[in-house]
Amino acid sequence: MEIIKASLTDYKTIYNIAIPVWDATYKTILTQEQMDYMLKLFYSEEAFTEQVSVKGHQFLLAVEGTEYLGFASYEVNYQSETTKLHKLYVLPQAHGKGVGKALVTVVENAARKNINDKLLLNVNRYNPAVHFYLKAGFENKGEDDVDIGNGYLMEDYLMVKQL
């Protein structure tokens, strides 16, 4: 498996990973209407372009041979000496292969290179991935409800990992 840096030209690949991951993860947590709203908000081509070109998010892809297994996005110096892990998605069929761990390791190394001393992320409180993050060394620092418009809230845990 290899972790590579993604670019704007990788939009379709990232989108094609996000859709099945969202379906598997959120179909029992969110309504279909909220999922559709959030996918458009965060995964439209326009939103992706803004994340990369304006907000400075870095995207990574995990690839094995010709098969893409997952992706991550992060932002160094998010809050002073903090790197924010914005997204980490691994296809269900690739769970247990070390994909998530490999992506987190690359983000940790980028954070250290930029003299950031911690990673920060939000994860839905009902997402089974909470256990992955705890095992990876993140600590639950409390709840964070984020109003994303249209009457929807992201009901998350705020998680931090000291580097």
Automatic annotation (TrEMBL):
InterPro entries to which the protein is assigned, alphabetical: Acyl_CoA_acyltransferase, Bact_Acetyltransf, GNAT_dom
Keyword Transferase assigned: yes
A GO MF label: acyltransferase activity, transferring groups other than amino-acyl groups
Cited SUPFAM superfamilies: Acyl-CoA N-acyltransferases (Nat) (SSF55729)
Keyword Plastid: no
Keywords: Acyltransferase, Transferase
N-acetyltransferase domain segment(s): 1-163
Pfam families attached to this UniProt entry: Acetyltransf_10
Protein name stated in the entry: Acetyltransferase
Organism placement in taxonomy: Bacteria, Pseudomonadati, Bacteroidota, Flavobacteriia, Flavobacteriales
